[in-house]
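Workshop exercise sheet. Pairs work together: one partner reads the sequence aloud, the other fills in the structure field after running the prediction. Swap roles for the next sheet.
Pair: D.N. / O.F.
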Amino acid sequence: MSRVILALIGVILLAVVALALLWLLGQVMAGVGAFVVGTAGVLSRLLWFLIFTGVLSGLVYFVASAWRPAAKTAVPAGAPAVRLNEAASAFAVPSPVVGAAPVSEPTASSGTPVPDVSATDPPDHPARFTGRADVYAAARPGYPAELGTWLESSELLAAPVADVGAGTGLFTRLLLGQGATVRAVEPNDEMRAQLERSLADALTAGTLSVHAGTSEATGLPDASVSLVTAAQAAHWFDPARTVVEFRRILAPGGRVLLVWNDWRAVALPFNRAYGDTIRPFLAAGTPEVATRVPEERLPALLPGGFERQEFTHEVTLTRERLHALAASVSYLPGPDSAAYPALTRALDAVFDEHVTGEGTVSFGYRTHAFLGSLG
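Structure field:
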């Protein structure tokens, strides 16, 4: 009997221990749950605090930005505009030629005070040469005959050629002279009209067609040309979009030719004197570089690789052509600018210092031709 009673007591004790363990486990679980809920509550409040402070900071910045006046730079009336990368334009001031005498800081040769010529940074668009088409056609240099001979001998002109950024037709004329059939593409209305007038015979003969377009959108049919040329123009092209368009219009195996006339590396006396004379009239932001050819952009424009050819030639300038040459440059004072008379007086003075018995001066150029593919 006593054994039964002891067994019963043991069972009761085990039940009590089990119940105690269950109670303890419940307490632990309740504590963990309270901790989790509390932590989530803290994190939630922290998140809402961050959202609130972020929105408030954004509103403060917006109000402060709207209130703060934008800085402005005064631009004198008649001052020409220039892009900050205008080093690629045709007649920027020269850096000193290697081996030449140092170039001192110039003043206008006439002694006339040089106007303060400032500039803004406008978007690149065809209107930059509006009003300069006539002087451009009259004064800008052509291209050496040796370049045309090389193109013809390389059999690059047997099929139609697209001359993109043709301007007034200076390079188009060379292509036509070597027997090419040319599709001239030019976005500026005045420049295109000048091209059509000067090359009317080729239009009539059917060896030339003229199109309003850009390097990024030529308007020419697919695979319609075997060669694309751009003379004095490719520094304005958007490389990525241009390559896509050139691939579209080129026939299989087609090539691309980029050409620049560069006068700054030529060590003729008048080249240096001209650079010194125009320096005070340059629009603000025009940088000095050793060469006007934007070689750092060539891999993007000719991703399939390229070869280089160089030619030299000289142009004879009269006083009037020298005036027109300067007037054709987009970052020098144009004929309608208040600064233009001072520029022409300075040019007259340096012209008189170098004029020959024939009443002219010699201006030298190095022509760089890059023939490549698009890969």
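Discussion prompt: The two ends are 107 Å apart (CA to CA). What would you look at next?
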